[in-house]
Design brief:
With about 375 residues, the protein is of the alpha/beta class. It is built from eleven helices and seven strands. It has two domains: about 25-190, no CATH class; about 195-365, Peptidyl-tRNA hydrolase (Rossmann fold, 3-Layer(aba) Sandwich). A seven-stranded mixed β-sheet has the order 1-2-3-7-4-6-5.
Length: about 375
């Protein structure tokens, strides 16, 4: 019996195909895990490079601005391992007060650390360095976490461990790059996406403040919060925002609480803040709602809800400018700045529709004031 050339090649192809099926049946998962481990390893190396670059950039800025007597590199390296232990919440009674105490102690430690590392830095630069240091810490923690799961997956050869980190890798890298952008913005003192809330109320003050309508300003009404008082559309407006142009956030909840204790006839509270958009939503879009629009750990939001909502039954209107997490951390885009103008118009419209002339109102611009002066 003879075989044609075509039949021989057919048998070879079938044998190769069968061999491939057997290999992938027996070693498919192992090969897949090797590919995944390599991609995770590449991410770890990239994160390490980003972390070292961020640290070196921060050290150079501290040397340039703070004029330290000794190299701050060791102090920066040490502080990148800083941690905060949140209070126990098994018994929720008083947890907000305990959390605020921990956050206050944390804030004081950071301020002290910056003073030691950059003794010649003024208030604005010190705030920027403090936020840049926190961004560097966040980047360092992302790097350590990904590295941990890479080594753990490599040691254990557990497909589940490797798969879980691999499936989240693109989102993790996206967040890391956003934090890196934030660090650069803090160091350069540029407005970031999260600065849009203070930008809105600043535009409001600039648009309505004039010789015929003077603006009364109180510096440090509460810590790192300024208060502006002026007439807006016949209403007595009390406007609060963080000081700026340093990267400060302050305690807007404390300021609103204090205002409500001092002014017993406030009729409405308006709040403006940045908000994370969903994929497919337009950057810079402005939406309206009700409630205390403020992020963070929840301490300031609790104060606002307790003082404005529970005790004073005050209507709370919220305006949110939509942006992604990269936009929130990175330098402010034109679309977000344009969104601030839209928010001003909607805010004025809301004041006209929902308050009366001679009413006392509070307007709060929530967010980081990096690069946003008076």
């Amino acid at each position: 019996m003879t075989f044609g050339t075509d039949n021989i090649w057919t048998m070879v192809y079938n044998a190769i195909f069968l061999l491939v099926i057997i290999i992938f049946s027996l070693y498919g998962q192992k090969l897949q895990s090797l590919f995944w481990l390599q991609s995770i390893k590449n991410a770890v190396e990239e994160l390490k490079s980003m972390t070292l670059k961020a640290r070196d950039l921060l050290v150079e800025k501290i040397k340039e601005i703070g004029k330290p007597k000794k190299d701050p590199k060791a102090a920066v390296n040490s502080f990148l391992e800083f941690f905060t232990v949140t209070p126990v919440d098994l018994d929720p009674a008083g947890v907000i007060q305990r959390l605020e105490h921990v956050l206050d102690v944390r804030k004081n430690r950071w301020e002290e650390q910056v003073k030691q590392m950059a003794p010649e830095a003024n208030e604005v630069y010190a705030a920027n360095i403090e936020n840049a240091l926190e961004a560097a810490l966040g980047l360092h923690q992302i790097f350590k976490t990904v590295r941990h799961y890479y080594i753990l997956g490599k040691k254990s050869k557990s497909l589940m461990v490797i798969m879980q980190i691999q499936m989240q890798l693109s989102l993790i890298m996206q967040q890391a790059k956003a934090v890196e952008n934030a660090l650069n913005a803090f160091i350069e003192g540029k407005p970031i996406g999260d600065s849009v809330g203070p930008l809105v109320v600043t535009k409001l003050v600039q648009n309505y403040g004039s010789e015929g309508n003077p603006v009364k300003k109180i510096e440090d009404y509460t810590k790192e919060i300024n208060l502006y008082e002026l007439n807006i559309e016949g209403r007595n407006a009390f406007i609060i925002r963080a000081k700026g142009p340093g990267a400060t956030v302050g305690k807007p909840g404390e300021a609103i609480k204090k205002l409500l204790n001092e002014k017993k006839n406030i009729s409405r509270l308006f709040m403006v803040d940045a908000g994370l958009k969903l994929e497919g939503e337009k950057t810079g879009a402005v939406i309206e709602g009700v409630g205390a629009v403020i992020g963070g750990f929840g301490v300031e939001k609790y104060k606002i809800e307790e003082a404005a909502g529970v005790k004073n039954k005050l209507p709370m209107d919220g305006y949110v400018i939509k942006e992604s997490i990269e936009d929130a951390y990175g330098p402010m885009k034109k679309e977000i700045a344009d969104g601030a103008d839209k928010a001003v118009k909607l805010l004025i419209q809301g004041i006209k529709e929902r308050t009366l002339e001679n009413d006392n109102i509070i307007i709060a611009g929530i967010g980081n004031c990096c690069g946003i002066g008076d």
